[in-house]
Amino acid sequence: MGIEIAWSVGVEATGDRILPTEQILDLADAVAHRGGSASGIGTNSYGATFLVYAEDRETAIAKAKEFFQMAVQTANMPDWGITRVEAESEEDVEPEPGFP
What we know:
This protein has helices spanning about 20-30, 55-75, and strands at about 5-15, 35-40, 45-55, 80-90.
């Protein structure tokens, strides 16, 4: 068992129509308890970004996908399927100038 590090994982589903703002807000409510944030207002997609702790990228993505699917069900989102996943670890991020 290795050391878990922080990962920011974005998950997105794309469909055939623009969803009402209220539906994206329902998704935001559904991901909030996991520290997630939702996106998709004014677009033909919806998504969420989660901060997860995992040993590697694959595990981080798996955790975020699970959280996303639970939130999609809770918010009664359309079942469009995941079309994009991005994961970035705390080690991937280069510090801004002036920060240690």
